[in-house]
Amino acid sequence: MRYPFGLSLSKPLLAFAALLLATAAHAHKPSDSYLTMRATEGGTDITVRWDIALRDLDYVLQLDRDNNGELTWGEVRQREAEITKYTTERLALAAAGKPCGWDAAAPLQLDHHSDGTYAVLSLVAHCPGLETGLKAKYILFADVDPTHRGLVQWIAPGGIAAQALIFGTDTAEQALALQPASAWVTLKQYIVDGVWHIWIGYDHILFLLSLLLPAVLVRKDGVWTGASSFRGALVEVLKVVTAFTLAHSITLSLAALGIISLPSRLVESAIAASVVFAALNNLRGTIESKRWVMAFAFGLIHGFGFASVLADLGLPQGALVLALVGFNAGVEIGQLAIVAVFLPVAFALRGTKFYRVGVLKAGSVLVAILAGWWLLQRMFDL
């Protein structure tokens, strides 16, 4: 079978195409729920705010009774008891070896996150013997979505800063520290969150890779050829990554501190558009030596995207700067890990037709098509 640019699509490129198509349903991030759990000093109760995506609840509970594809507040409110029962059966807290009892603290509410509407449960867990230790077991959606995670902000008795915990298939049961989180623990947890986010942020990764693909090539007389030195390719990569890092760090900080705010749909649409632009630029070569300028300009938009995820994770007011620094550092560590894998492989393949035509050109076409679909999804809320 023949494809554009006169290339017979090889098995590695087919695998790359399959990977891109597999990410189409996850234009930004997979399924998460968000919990803030706070213990009262000297007491036995734990207050819980639990945000769960309506799309996930609808999948398991069929909340859309009339099957018209639209969830109304009335449909959700009528199923409040079922939602509460389903979720509390899948979050078990235990103190002194005995299960904690659940009560509703307030009626079900709705809230908007960067990726849609969430049901908000306000609960109280009664945990006699809390002072002897506390364990949590989280298995929400474990039977239907093994990639789902519970992102927990745990505030110990007398604590101000939250300890960030991630519950998933391999970490379903964890102990919750009864001593307030130290500065180092808070910093470390948000570094982990930052690394994880960049690795699952497919749009951010594809934008960065689209800019890096030509870094191991030089354009002569309108034709791409392999760069003569690894050092030159490394300098080009560092310029792009540094510009992207500086730009998104600026807007991430401004947005996280509440200084600037942009509508989520606008930000997410602009991020998708940036991926399309970067990928198509690899075909036309409009911007060659100044790709770092493009990285900086679009990096400002990507920073707002990072900020929306950080807001979803929850920012501990007592350790706001630590959380911000940790998350940003985690994003950079995740980026550098991607670059460390990409650059040696790309440089080794730079002289092959497979890289120049298959990876750079055909790969950029696939990325542009995928990002174009994301753009339509986000602009028109499909």
Set down the secondary structure blueprint.
Layout: E1 2-3, E2 7-8, H1 11-22, E3 32-39, E4 45-53, H2 54-61, H3 73-78, H4 80-88, E5 91-95, E6 98-99, E7 101-113, E8 116-126, E9 134-138, E10 149-155, E11 163-167, E12 173-176, H5 183-200, H6 202-212, E13 217-220, E14 223-226, H7 230-256, H8 264-284, H9 291-313, H10 320-349, H11 353-380
Helix pairs in contact: 1-11, 5-10, 6-8, 7-9, 7-10, 8-9, 8-11
Give me a quick take on this structure.
This protein is α+β, with helices and mostly antiparallel strands and 382 residues long. The protein is built from eleven helices and 14 strands.
Key structural traits:
alpha+beta; single chain; 6-stranded mixed β-sheet; 382 residues; elongated; 14 strands; 4-stranded antiparallel β-sheet; disordered N terminus; 21% strand
Explain what you see.
It is a single chain. By secondary structure, the protein is α+β, with helices and mostly antiparallel strands. It folds into two domains: 2-28 and 201-380; 32-182, no CATH class. 51% of the residues lie in helices and 21% in strands. It contains eleven helices and 14 strands. The strands form four sheets. A six-stranded mixed β-sheet has the order 7-8-4-3-10-11, sandwiched between helices. β3 (32-39) and β4 form a beta hairpin.
Largest sheet, strands/sense/barrel: 6 strands, mixed
Whole-number total of structural domains: 2
- Counting DSSP E segments of at least 2 residues, the number of strands comes to 14
Strand order of the largest sheet: 7-8-4-3-10-11
Please provide the ordered H/E string of secondary-structure elements. EEHEEHHHEEEEEEEEHHEEHHHHH
The gyration radius over C-alpha positions equals: 23 Å
Task: Kindly report how far apart the N and C termini lie.
Answer: 33 Å
Approximately how much beta-strand content do the residues carry? 15-25%
